[in-house]
Amino acid sequence: MSSTLVLPGDQIPVPSTSRNLIIGPGIAAADNASNSSSAPTLVATRLGMLHTGKGKEKSQKVWIEGNSKRYIPAQKDMVLGVIIARHSEGYRVDLGSAQMAQLDALSFEGATKRSKPNLKASFSVGTLVFARVISASRDMEPELECFDANTGKSDGFGELKGGVMINCTLQLCRQLLNRNYPLLPAIASAFPFEISIGLNGRVWLKAETVSEALAMKRVIEGVNDGVLGVEEAAVKAKIQEYMA
């Protein structure tokens, strides 16, 4: 994975070797009025580091990671949202962004117009859900879904029961999703756990015991605040200290 500093309005080079390009946060496609047949030009919409990396099935990912404290919804982002209202067609969800998001009642595994779920018997206000952003723009509220569009299954999306949610920097959330980042493997060497990471700066975690969950919470918060390193020895020592 490589990175380069870019400014808003800078043109983003498109990798010539990639047939499938996945555009991430901080990048927009500009229309080529002079040549409608050519591929759209990609431009940066924020100040930050331009990152490129390999995606699934020989695809190439490109995104800009800035130092923004407020989350800006982007298509295909995985997020943790809190149900704040329920209406006839679905839910309004708080993502911690400037706009509330919409979660349609049909955006769940197995939901159809004939078998629409009973909203009153489903999620209540305050429910935490793991979802994917399917559309996002400045002029419209972002839309969410709680199933994998490729498989039609929930695959971990939906309500997150129990556990604890913590707020982290957007940068740390992206790092936690990187398989080469050592923090989560270091914690896993101490005890098993479940985790859902939202690119909107929220992390949900669940362990077998309350003491393990609280120790994990304090470790992640320590890394987030910059007072704890991510080396396995340091993480294990802190876990033992917190659980003593």
* Spatial order of strands in the largest sheet: 8-9-10-12-11
**Could you estimate the helical fraction of the residues in percent?**
10-25%
| Amino- and carboxy-terminal Cα gap | 39 Å
CATH first level of the largest domain: which class?
Mainly Beta
**CATH homologous superfamily grouping of the largest domain:** Nucleic acid-binding proteins
Proportion of strand residues: 25-35%
Compute the number of helices. Answer: 4
Give me the CATH fold name of the largest domain.
OB fold (Dihydrolipoamide Acetyltransferase, E2P)
Specify the overall morphology.
Answer: globular
Mean pLDDT: 86
The profile of the biggest β sheet is: 5 strands, mixed, barrel
Class based on secondary structure composition and strand pairing: alpha+beta
Q: Output the radius of gyration.
A: 20 Å
Number of strands: 16
